[in-house]
Design the sequence.
């Protein structure tokens, strides 16, 4: 069984920073792409940033230059460093990973709340 556990969310003022972490555990043979998604109140879940196993990154236009995604393959962990936060960044952030366990599947974390006050 594979689990993704997120941490690092919270309340921060506009202009502040937060760092999210997501650690995968369980019967893992390899991890392909990992990513962070955001779901704002009343909106659909959207991709914020992703990173391949080789380190190639992709960002939503709204976070380019402010957010940085990285991963530690030895620890099966992905990070999201969020700087210059804005109120519109508020939402529940979910970690996603494409993991080769006994089968290749997409896994989601439980979500962590990020609230940016103006």
Sequence:
């Amino acid at each position: 069984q594979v689990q993704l556990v997120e941490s690092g969310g919270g309340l921060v003022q506009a202009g502040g920073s937060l760092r999210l972490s997501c650690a995968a555990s369980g019967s893992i043979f390899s991890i392909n792409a990992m990513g962070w998604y955001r779901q704002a109140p009343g909106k659909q879940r959207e991709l914020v940033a992703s990173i391949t196993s080789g380190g190639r990154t992709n960002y939503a236009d709204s976070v380019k230059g402010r957010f940085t995604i990285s991963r530690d393959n030895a620890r099966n962990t992905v990070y999201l460093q969020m700087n210059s936060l804005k109120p519109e960044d508020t939402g529940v952030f979910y970690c996603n990973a494409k993991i080769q366990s006994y089968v290749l599947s997409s896994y989601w974390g439980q979500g962590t709340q990020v609230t940016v006050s103006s």
